[in-house]
Structure formats: structure tokens, C-alpha cells
Design a protein that fits this description.
370 residues; alpha+beta; 2 domains; four-stranded antiparallel β-sheet; 11 helices; 40% helix
Length: 370
């Protein structure tokens, strides 16, 4: 079966008038251009906060060193293969993001600063600042939904605490502002305040997640379902609206859960789809068996057939709206030939500003608000 083509914004795909702003927020996520800013900002703030009063380096120098250390772990995106399309998902957020690798990664990230003659006499402080910045990366990534191997090589468990979106300006901007203020005023305490504000926001995300889980349980009870497995995932750039996903009777049930910071929350019913169980590897080509195993591991076993292309297995944790079934990405596996193809749908759809406003500010007409 030929792959389907999907074009247009979310509003067009839902057969609504295409009268919204042409600005496509989804293209930001597609390029991944915002997340490194957050990682670098957090690494810089941590280096300034922890070493600002204990180092001969200026706060500006500590910030730049910590920023490079904070972003360096994502150099694992360079691990890819033209013959193995799944190598990238296997090694992204892998060893470079693990806690045991922090001293090694931080030291490697410090080496370019050796070229700076004025920093060489204080290089142990450069390494310390870089290691502190590097240490923040995996921990922050584990706060998102993607999955991060914090405990490699002792475990391949993918930590995904799902308390913040992979891009959230309400986390990044206050931290960045207080970091800049700390450097300008030469006062490390403002960076410490920034870290506390960031931790408070992550804590708020944890509380919001628990509220969303409670609403998920209420919706399942209303349907007469006994939840066998469940999770909720913050949607793009906010901690108010969540994608609810639970398993019951061999199917995945998907809903939109909106929990405003004040007031009660609501569930907008979505739809359901059959779950996909990985086939036994016996009789499959080695590449097909590996692809099934790897994709189910990567997706935390949230795998279903793409409703728009039955040849694609999708990671149903991610879609273009909380109630939609079409996955953002997936894999096409030919169990006869062993051919494997990674499918990325992010470039085929966009999220407009109006989509985002509707996502955060409104419930569906059939919303359940207990």
C-alpha cells in the first residue's frame, strides 16, 4: 500500500474554515530549534549558581561554559546511519544523557575552552562548570515524555516523568531573564532564584499531571472501563492541556484533558484504536525483528496502526492534537523483505497560533467536567 499524503494545518484536516493565522508553531518543534536554548540556559544558570562565588572565573565565563556543557549531550543526534533508519532513535537520549556519563561528557565539553589562553590557568574550574552544566541535561530531558536513559549502562529504562513539554516558554524565559540579570549585575543569587523558579514550575507540572490522571480515571469509570495501563502527556508549550492515553480490553483510548491552573478540569472525549503487540521474532528477517523490538521499546509499548496508513506503526504518545489518532512519527516494517523505513509526519502538518490558543483555552462541545 502506498503511503498516504497529509498536508495542511490541523484546522484544515478537521474540515474547519482555514481562516487562522498562517504562523506555524509546529515548524518550530519540527526543527528542534528551541529545546537547545532551554538546555543551554539551564546549564548556564546551574554553573553560575553553584560556582559563582567559588571560582576565579567571571559569571559571564561560567555562563558560556555551562551553556555549552548543558547543550553538549544532544550531539548524539549525529549518531545515525544511511543503512539503519532506527539507529538515531536508538541512540538519542542514550549514553550521552546518562548520569554515570556526566563526568566524562562534561570534561569532553570543556576541552574546546582549552583554546582560550586566559582560561587555561583556571582549567579545573572550567571543567567543574562544564560538568555542572552537563549534569542538568539528562535530568531536564527526563522531565519530558520522550524517554531518557538516565541509568545507562546499568539499565535501558527510559525515564519520562512527563511534567513539562519539550518546549515551554514559561520554563525557559524566566530562567533566561534571571540568568542575564545575574551576569549583568554580577550577582549569582539571581541565577539561584532562576533555578528555584524553574523547579517550582516543574513541581507545578507534577501537580497538573496528577490532576490530569485523576480526570482520566474518572472518564474511564464513566465509560465502565477498568484501566490496565495509562499515562498522560503535556501538550505543546503548556502544562494545562494533556493527551490522555489508557489501555482497556486490547484498545488504546485517547482523550483531551484540560486542567486550568484555577478551577475544575474537563475531559474532551477522543477515540480509540487497537493496540499492536510485537510479533514473535521466529521466522522474521533479523532487521524486521529488531525493528519491532526497538520501536516498541522506544514507544514504551504505546504502538498502534496509523489510521491514515495501515502500513505504518505509530507511536501514539504523540499526535497533532490530544484527541487525534494519527501519529507524529512511526515506522514501516516489511516482514517479508526485512526493509525498515522511519516515517516522520511533522513536516506534513502545521499547528497555527489559533490551534494553540484553542488547545489551551477551550474544551470540546461534548466535554465531561466532573
Amino acid at each position: 500500500m502506498a503511503p498516504s499524503t497529509r498536508t495542511g494545518s490541523l484546522s484544515q484536516l478537521q474540515n474547519q474554515p482555514a481562516t487562522w493565522s498562517p504562523v506555524r508553531l509546529g515548524s518550530v518543534l519540527h526543527r528542534g530549534s528551541v529545546e537547545p536554548i532551554t538546555q543551554a540556559t539551564l546549564g548556564a544558570a546551574a554553573s553560575v549558581a553553584f560556582l559563582g562565588n567559588r571560582s576565579p572565573l567571571s559569571l559571564a565565563q561560567l555562563a558560556w561554559i555551562g551553556a555549552l556543557g548543558g547543550a553538549a549531550a544532544d550531539l548524539d543526534v549525529l549518531i545515525r546511519s544511511s543503512t539503519d533508519p532506527l539507529l538515531a532513535i536508538e541512540y538519542h537520549r542514550h549514553f550521552t544523557h546518562s548520569l554515570p556519563f556526566v563526568p566524562v561528557g562534561g570534561t569532553l565539553a570543556a576541552l574546546p575552552w582549552w583554546l582560550h589562553a586566559k582560561l587555561r590557568p583556571h582549567f579545573r574550574y572550567v571543567i567543574a562548570a562544564s560538568v555542572v552544566g552537563y549534569a542538568t541535561h539528562g535530568l531536564l530531558d527526563a522531565c519530558t515524555t520522550y524517554g531518557t536513559q538516565l541509568f545507562w549502562p546499568f539499565s535501558s529504562y527510559r525515564a519520562s516523568w512527563a511534567v513539562v513539554s519539550v518546549v515551554d516558554p514559561l520554563f525557559t524565559l524566566p530562567l533566561l531573564g534571571l540568568l542575564i540579570w545575574a551576569v549583568r549585575r554580577k550577582a549569582a543569587r539571581f541565577a539561584r532564584i532562576g533555578l528555584l523558579v524553574g523547579l517550582a514550575y516543574l513541581g507545578l507540572g507534577g501537580l497538573q499531571r496528577q490532576r490530569a490522571l485523576a480526570l482520566q480515571a474518572a472518564m474511564a469509570e464513566r465509560r465502565g472501563h477498568h484501566i490496565e495501563r495509562s499515562d498522560v502527556f503535556p501538550s505543546f508549550m503548556n502544562d494545562v492541556t494533556y493527551r490522555s492515553l489508557y489501555e482497556y480490553d486490547g484498545r488504546y483510548w485517547v482523550d483531551k484533558i484540560r486542567v486550568p491552573w484555577t478551577g475544575g478540569g474537563c475531559v474532551t472525549p477522543g477515540s480509540s484504536m487497537p493496540q499492536v503487540v510485537p510479533p514473535p521474532p521466529e521466522g522474521l528477517p533479523a532487521s524486521s525483528a529488531r525493528a519491532h523490538r526497538l520501536f516498541h521499546w522506544f514507544s514504551a509499548n504505546w504502538v498502534a496502526v496509523d489510521p491514515e496508513d495501515s502500513t505504518v506503526l505509530g507511536d501514539v504518545r504523540y499526535s497533532f492534537s490530544p484527541t487525534e489518532l494519527t501519529p507524529v512519527w512511526g515506522v514501516r516494517i516489511d516482514d517479508q523483505s526485512g526493509k525498515v523505513e522511519w516515517i516522520n509526519n511533522r513536516g506534513r502538518r502545521g499547528i497555527t497560533v489559533a490551534d494553540y490558543v484553542e488547545l489551551v483555552s477551550s474544551n470540546g462541545p461534548d466535554a465531561y467536567c466532573p
